[in-house]
Design goal:
- This protein is α+β, with helices and mostly antiparallel strands and 209 residues long.
- The chain is built from 4 helices and 7 strands, in the order H-H-E-E-E-H-E-E-E-E-H.
- It has a 7-stranded antiparallel β-sheet, sandwiched between helices.
- A hairpin with an 8-residue loop joins strand 1 and strand 2.
Length: 209
């Protein structure tokens, strides 16, 4: 009887000792880790989308035309910028009172959705609503570039955007060549773009494929 009591006491002591030595972390429940957040896929640029600022965009396969750059003469007052996967050439024109205009040369296969779609996309960039097909003649004209008929698009925003002193104006010359569309696009402060219009047209007239 005494031996049995001794054995029971020894077992109880061992149980107490084990319980005391158990680490606090082992007695606490561990919250399961939340499942890893699924990242949204990187946005892809719609094929053939001539944008106002394309320098940082990544082109999806087949979006850019493979045509070589034509020859042209850059106006002496334009500052040349960096070309990119989206821009074949990039320039900046400066004017009084901090005015500036951005000039971009891009090329895409085909007609890039057509003239009306392109105009309405560009108008959206200046905060303007779309135009109906029978209205675009009011902002377009034709231009002969070394025997090729080009289209000139010219329109202006209604109000100055935030942080700008002037409304924005955009002039785009579209030249179709060898199944591609070349876009010579100037965007910037309306007064400066107005004075740079002839310079842009001279630049485009210097283009030789």
């Amino acid at each position: 009887m005494i031996s049995r009591l001794v054995n029971c006491s020894w077992v109880a002591a061992v149980v107490v000792a084990v319980g005391c030595n158990r680490s606090p972390s082992s007695s606490q429940s561990v919250s399961p880790r939340p499942p890893p957040t699924q990242e949204s896929p990187a946005p892809t640029f719609p094929p053939g989308h001539p944008n106002i600022d394309m320098s940082a965009q990544v082109l999806p396969p087949g979006a850019a035309a493979e045509a070589a750059n034509p020859q042209w003469t850059v106006p002496k007052d334009w500052q040349e910028g960096k070309a990119s996967s989206m821009r074949r050439a990039s320039f900046t024109a400066k004017g009084a009172d901090g005015q500036s205009a951005d000039i971009a040369v891009t090329v895409f296969p085909g007609d890039v959705g057509g003239l009306v779609a392109n105009i309405n996309r560009w108008r959206g960039q200046l905060g303007l609503g779309p135009m109906a097909p029978d209205e675009i003649s009011s902002i377009t004209s034709n231009l002969d570039i070394n025997g090729t008929q080009a289209t000139v698009v010219d329109f202006q925003g209604l109000a100055s955007p935030a942080g700008a002193a002037h409304p924005q104006r955009m002039i785009v010359v579209i030249i179709p060549h060898a199944g591609n569309s070349w876009f010579f696009k100037m965007t910037g402060d309306a007064p400066l773009v107005g004075t740079q219009r002839e310079t842009l047209l001279q630049f485009v007239n210097s283009v030789k494929f």
